[in-house]
Amino acid sequence: LAALTLSGMSQAIAKDEPLKTSNGHSKPKAKKSGGKRVVVLDPGHGGIDTGAIGRNGSKEKHVVLAIAKNVRSILRNHGIDARLTRSGDTFIPLYDRVEIAHKHGA
């Protein structure tokens, strides 16, 4: 990834250098040459976090999970190794979602 350096208020210059982070996250697994692409979909919410609630009582956590499962199916049909951060009604903290993606090499 290229880091973005801001020069003044309206000018941005992209530099070809690695981003430096200090958030304590693990680094993604190394990619195998010629390996299958991996995509990790994060439906968000889940468990105690319902997200938005629709006029008729639909919960965002259920809607986004259904969408993510459909997208995973489409991606798999195109030869992409697609995974979900959650496959049921469970809450996963944001930090753990990043770790899940890194564990799968996404």
Characteristic terms for this protein:
106 residues; alpha+beta; Aminopeptidase; two-stranded antiparallel ribbon; two-stranded parallel sheet; 26% helix; flat; disordered N terminus; MurNAc-LAA_cat; N-acetylmuramoyl-L-alanine amidase AmiA; N-acetylmuramoyl_amidase_3
Description:
- With 106 residues, the chain is α+β, with helices and mostly antiparallel strands.
- It has a domain at 38-104: Zn-dependent exopeptidases (Aminopeptidase), CATH 3.40.630.
- It has helices spanning 60-77, 94-103; strands at 3-7, 11-15, 38-41, 81-84.
- The strands form two sheets. The chain has a two-stranded antiparallel ribbon. Strands 3-4 form a two-stranded parallel ribbon.
- The longest helix has 18 residues, at 60-77.
- It starts with a strand and ends with a helix.
- Residues 39-106 form the MurNAc-LAA domain.
- This is N-acetylmuramoyl-L-alanine amidase AmiA.
- Residues 26-35 have a biased composition (Basic residues).
**N to C succession of SSEs:** EEEHEH
Structural class: alpha+beta
Number of DSSP strand runs: 4
Largest sheet: 2 strands, antiparallel
Integer-rounded radius of gyration = 18 Å
Question: Taking strands numbered 1, 2, ... along the chain, how are they ordered across the largest sheet?
Answer: 1-2
Overall CATH class of the domain at 38-104: Alpha Beta
Mean pLDDT figure? 81
Q: What is the overall silhouette? A: flat
